[in-house]
UniProtKB/TrEMBL annotation:
Membrane topology qualifier: Multi-pass membrane protein
A Pfam short name: Mito_carr
Solcar repeat intervals: 20-104
UniProt family annotation: Belongs to the mitochondrial carrier (TC 2.A.29) family.
Protein name: Mitochondrial carrier domain-containing protein
Locations listed in the record: Mitochondrion inner membrane
Stored PANTHER family: SOLUTE CARRIER FAMILY 25 (MITOCHONDRIAL CARRIER PHOSPHATE CARRIER), MEMBER 3, LIKE-RELATED-RELATED (PTHR45671), SOLUTE CARRIER FAMILY 25 MEMBER 3 (PTHR45671:SF10)
SUPFAM superfamilies listed in its UniProt record: Mitochondrial carrier
Keywords from the named record: Membrane, Mitochondrion, Mitochondrion inner membrane, Repeat, Transmembrane, Transmembrane helix, Transport
GO cellular component: mitochondrial inner membrane
Length: 311
């Protein structure tokens, strides 16, 4: 890629945003999302069961104790395989394509409009990236939810066997893309909030708290800003996307087989969709998002690409 004299968003950072840059961002995103989501599988199992069977599973701690009692340690780690693979793929496209689309939209808008409407660029880039990321995630997310919410002994737990069973149940489960619309409904608003609020909070930190040039601060300080901004953004994300997250879980419930999204929403009620399991998800997603951004920016900094965001 040759450097042009014309303003180009790809040359605003410490290194040019070429094919190698985007590929590294994809790898960083895969590392950030795959390991963090896999690490909180027990919380995810508890949350999903609270959503689909709130009479039996009441509260995070009580749900985990009940799962351990009934199924042992294996019970709280159900769905680890599809979680790790699915969210690694999702993270790869989410972060890598965000960088690509952000540069593309900035160049299409031009320097003046890009500077004036940064927030719109962040929202457009993140929503575009998540659109494609969810297509990669959907089959694995459907498999994960089915494993985690099926009564013991009614559905295979091993990753390979579960995928095979989902393929056999295509008509019943609408596998592999049956949950794509509710997944988009959950993940696109989540990702828009995640990237917009992260970028905005980082901007506020470097405008009002760390007011010297960003590169004058140590890598430790910059990564501290990254984690704090990611955590705060994650709390907002959890609240925004929780109703759709509940719907994805309910679609995997045997009793809801063949029911439309509208029917399930009417039966459950919006208040339940918006609040059941929310406290668990706020803690889970806040921590998750903080560490995702920290891992991603640590990887970028290690590669000499700098951390994300600034004034």
């Amino acid at each position: 890629m040759s450097v042009s004299t014309k303003w180009d968003a790809r040359y605003l950072g410490p290194v040019p945003h070429d094919t190698s840059y985007y590929a590294k961002c994809m790898l960083g995103g895969a590392l950030a999302c795959g390991f963090t989501h896999a690490g909180i599988t027990p919380l995810d199992v508890a949350k999903c069961n609270m959503q689909v069977n709130p009479q039996k599973y009441v509260g995070t701690g009580a749900s985990l104790k009940l799962l351990l009692k009934e199924e042992g340690t294996r019970g709280i780690w159900k769905g680890l395989g599809p979680t790790f693979v699915g969210y690694s793929l999702q993270g790869m496209f989410k972060y890598g394509l965000y960088e690509f689309f952000k540069d593309t939209y900035m160049n299409a808008a031009g320097e003046e409009i890009s500077e004036k409407y940064k927030g719109a660029i962040w929202l457009a880039g993140s929503s575009s990236a998540e659109f494609f990321a969810d297509i990669a995630l959907c089959p694995l997310e459907m498999t994960k939810v089915k494993i985690q919410t099926s009564p013991t002994g009614t559905f295979p737990v091993p990753f390979g066997a579960a995928l095979s069973e989902m393929n056999k149940l295509k008509v019943e489960t609408r596998f592999p893309l049956g949950s794509l619309v509710p997944l988009w409904s959950r993940q696109i608003p989540y990702t828009m909030a995640k990237f917009f609020f992260f970028e905005k909070i980082v901007q506020l930190f470097y405008t009002h708290v760390f007011t010297n040039p960003k590169d004058s601060y140590s890598q430790t300080t910059q990564l501290g800003v990254t984690f704090a901004s990611g955590y705060i953004a994650g709390v907002v994300c959890a609240i925004v996307s929780h109703p759709a997250d509940s719907m994805v879980s309910l679609l995997g419930k045997t009793e809801n087989k063949g029911k439309s999204i509208g029917t399930i929403a009417g039966e459950v009620g919006f208040a339940t969709l918006a609040t059941k399991g929310l406290s668990t998800r706020v803690v889970m997603i806040g921590t998750l998002t903080g560490f995702q951004w920290w891992i991603y920016d640590t990887f970028k900094a290690t590669m000499g690409m700098g951390t994300t965001g600034g004034k």
